[in-house]
Amino acid sequence: MKKQLIALLLAAALIVSCAAADTLMPINVFWIIPDSDTRLLSEAELWQYSRETLRFIRNEILARAGYAFENNKFYNYFNAKPWYSAGGYLTVNKLSATAWSNVDTVKAVERAMDKAGTANENGLDIAQIIAYQNDMGGYGNMLNYGNSRGAGSGLTLAESDPALTPGPLPYATAVPRSMPMPRYCYTSQYIIPDSDTRYLADGELWAYSRETLRYIRNEILARHGYTFNTEKFAAYFGEKDWYSPGGYDDGKLSRLEWANIETVKQVERDMDALGITNAGYLDINTIIYHQENGLCPPW
Fold it and tell me: Which CATH architecture has domain 175-293?
């Protein structure tokens, strides 16, 4: 009885301390805990999440190694992640000792919550995480990358069943459903025509591939005559009627333009940190094709 009382008091203290400190982990677009496979998690930080979220945190570690989920809620959640590919669990992608240790730590906190009779409702809940990820582009439960149940094939939605994919490729999975779609006809000769007059949001930039972001960033410089030494940029901007190389000066760019360049760079860094190229999203080759052929994306 005394041990049970101590466990209850400890659980209550952890809950209160986490709530009072207001140190809940920030929500990531693709992950609950992005580095749960590379660093050891502490029990204290895990008490910042609800009991239900812990199940997703534990399964996120398994999902990294291709675990194929039968349970609908896990199946739907992880299938919305571009990094997830079902199949080959513990054969091709083995979990590290750190990852296994973290699985055990999560389980220990789950048992502690169960013993304390709490669902830790004041902790960061998976419903909040899913809502945020969906707002940022459908990465919570809205996208479906076509991973099969059971053994899994890791196919994209288009490869899995083209009939499930609305619209002609390459726009089938180009823009997440809740992300603002670029409303530009690419005959405008610009990728983002107003990147010099309004602040760009990182959410809208996730609609493009990693490579396209480099063109978006350089488009801002090109407006001011930046001369490109890289052949692909020199060739691309050299085809634009509005581009006139020469006379570039950093001082010509407005504060807004520099802010947009930094926003683009940050999204590039985020993609690099996740190890993704955002393949399948609006790619520069698709944009060039529409610019040259006078076509607009299907809206």
Answer: Up-down Bundle (1.20)
Report yes or no: 191 and 201 within 8 Å, Cβ to Cβ: no
Query: 201-216: per-residue pLDDT in tens?
Result: 877 788 788 999 999 9
pTM: 0.49
User: Could you tell me where in the chain the CATH 1.20.58.1690 domains are found?
Assistant: 175-293
Contact 63, 78 (CB under 8 A): yes
Cα(20)–Cα(192) distance, integer angstroms: 44
Give yes or no for a contact between 66 and 86, defined as CB atoms under 8 angstroms apart.
yes
The CA-CA-CA angle for residues 226, 231, 236, to 5°, reads: 70
Query: Are the C-beta atoms of 69 and 90 separated by less than 8 Å?
Result: no
The whole-angstrom separation of Cα 121 and Cα 134 is: 21
Burial of 52 (0-12, 13-18, 19+ CB in 10 A): middle
Distance (Å, whole) CA 64 – CA 51: 21
pLDDT tens-digit map of 220-260: 999 999 999 999 999 999 999 999 999 999 999 999 999 99
